Amino acid sequence: MKTLKIRGQVLAALALLTTQSAMAQEVTFKIAHFLPGVAATQKAVLQPWCDEMGQLSNGRIKCQFYPSMQLGGTPAQLADQVKNGVADIVWTAPGYSAGRFPRTEALELPGVLPLGGLSGGRAAWEFYGQHLQTEYKDYKVLAMHGDGGMNIHTAKKPLNSAADFKGIKLRSPNRTIARSLTALGATPVAMPPAQVTEAIAKGVVDGASAVWEVLLPTKLDEVTKYHFETPAERPVMGATILVVLMNKQKYESLPADLKAIVDKTSGLPLVERYGKVWDEAAVAARNKVKAAGHVVTVVSGSNYDAILKQLEVVEKEWLADAKSKNIDGEALLAAAREAARKQSR
């Protein structure tokens, strides 16, 4: 009996030490993305998010950032980098990996998401929870948000209507927007944000589809003069969906209390951080280019309607692709529009 009592005491002590060790565990998340460190995604969203997790964990959660693809590879490879453990967390656009996340593209189609980072982000997160979890089963998804809506920035030629797109070369961020530009008569050129400014300066492209948020950190405002955007009360002409993905094994390896902190601060709270910052960045960029004498054109009602009409072919192409992959595209698109409608009230 005495031996059993001692053995029980030893086991209890070991259990206590194991618990204390888990409670004392510290972790440093390697976070990678494709924009410079001064961009809003790191400076105004991910860094404050990391700071909050650090405070809630009494300093046990830390972050090390690798902006501008410092871990190597291309933006299209970020999804694989986090899946394979090269990074613990990445911020990327699923659309950079063309065709890999086909259900997500429903949110990027013309006339679906509402204008704005906050409303678009909330719609995207609701849609993810209802329809996209299987598509991201290999990841721990910490956030999904919209980019605020497709804007076009050009160096020499102002855009006012669908006809103005004919014959120009424009950078496209994803397959859906590339199809939209083609439907409007432009030539889409795929390239990551870091290469766009130089490409415009050298005349490789005439402009770019890019959101207001990336304009200043990439210095796109220094090589463009004309800016074309969606009216505030209408759905966007196109979008790029962005995600914060975490390595699933890294998340599962965390002690329970650190998992709880990650869960508490991510999801909708992180989506809303992005949305608010994106909307603020859009105002700042718009004001800066206007003060510099640039021309900002909000496409007028009749021109907007004509553009959306011309872009109906993009939706048809996506539905055909979805059908070929045994995806119920009609149902997904209806659900995406309903999620967006709720945020447009």
Describe the structure.
InterPro entries: DctP_fam, TRAP_DctP_sf. This is TRAP-type C4-dicarboxylate transport system substrate-binding protein. Pfam families: DctP (PF03480). Residues 1-24 form the signal peptide. It comes from Azonexus fungiphilus. With 345 residues, the protein is of the alpha/beta class. The protein folds into two domains: 2-98 and 112-146 and 241-281, D-Maltodextrin-Binding Protein, domain 2; 152-238 and 282-343, Bacterial extracellular solute-binding protein, family 7 (D-Maltodextrin-Binding Protein, domain 2, 3-Layer(aba) Sandwich), CATH 3.40.190.170. Helices cover 47% and strands 15% of the residues. It is built from 13 helices and eleven strands. The protein has helices at residues 2-24, 40-56, 78-83, 117-132, 175-183, 193-201, 212-215, 248-253, 256-265, 268-291, 301-310, 312-324, 329-343, and strands at 27-32, 61-66, 89-92, 139-146, 152-154, 169-172, 187-190, 207-209, 226-229, 241-247, 295-298. The strands form two sheets. A six-stranded mixed sheet has the order 7-6-8-5-9-11, with helices on both faces. Strand 6, helix 5 and strand 7 form a beta-alpha-beta unit. Helix 2 (40-56) packs antiparallel against helix 10 (268-291), helix 4 (117-132) packs antiparallel against helix 10 and helix 4 (117-132) packs antiparallel against helix 13 (329-343). The chain is globular.
